[in-house]
Design goal:
This protein is mainly α and 180 residues long. The chain has two domains: 9-61, no CATH class; 65-178, no CATH class. Helix content is 62%, strand content 9%. Helix 3 runs antiparallel to helix 4 (98-121) and helix 5 (130-153) runs antiparallel to helix 6.
């Protein structure tokens, strides 16, 4: 063998395959655990590329919620929505076109206020799924209050107003982002 052939084989990198995608060749490794990863699995951080498992493990430090906190968030969101939504829907039905403007102005504030109430009710603990349980609680509260008022007042119309839909969309978005 000549010297130039030895240099070519020494410079050639060892072919690795992604740990999650065995058919994908890669030259990249996680800078924390050293696992071979492809570009689909790599997450760019300030210190280099890491695998999604190491990123999730690092993020777990910030989440300290208990399992019951998810159900507390669900119950609080459902109860507050059950009580507040008939009042809000009635106000939007009597304001007419100005209901759209009012809904746009106060919808996100109401969602953020609900998120703060939920955050205080769970002891200011953070969890990955609290925001999902909150959204489910809001939807259950909306449906329950709609059924309750339709039986009491024989009219389901205030729940289908455009102002009410704008209000609900903004409140859901604000609550979801605040509990992130």
């Amino acid at each position: 063998m000549t010297e130039s052939m030895l240099d070519d084989t020494a410079d050639a990198p060892h072919v690795m395959y992604c740990a999650n995608h065995p058919d994908t060749e890669t030259l990249l490794r996680c800078n924390k655990c050293g696992k071979p990863i492809c570009l689909k699995c790599a997450v760019l951080t300030e210190v280099g590329y890491r695998c999604k498992e190491c990123i999730r493990e690092q993020q777990n430090v910030f989440y300290n919620a208990m399992t019951r906190d998810n159900w507390i968030a669900f119950a609080v969101a459902a109860i507050i929505t059950l009580v507040a939504w008939p009042i809000v829907a009635f106000l939007f039905s009597i304001t007419g076109i100005f209901g759209w403007i009012i809904a746009a102005l106060i919808g996100s504030g109401a969602g953020a206020a609900l998120a703060q109430i939920i955050r205080n009710s769970v002891g200011r603990r953070r969890g990955r799924y609290i925001r999902h349980f909150t959204l489910a609680g809001i939807i259950v509260g909306l449906v329950a209050s709609g059924l309750m008022t339709s039986f009491l007042f024989t009219s389901f119309m205030p729940f289908f107003s455009l102002g009410g839909l704008i209000f609900v969309a903004l409140a859901l978005g604000a609550a979801f982002q605040t509990l992130r």
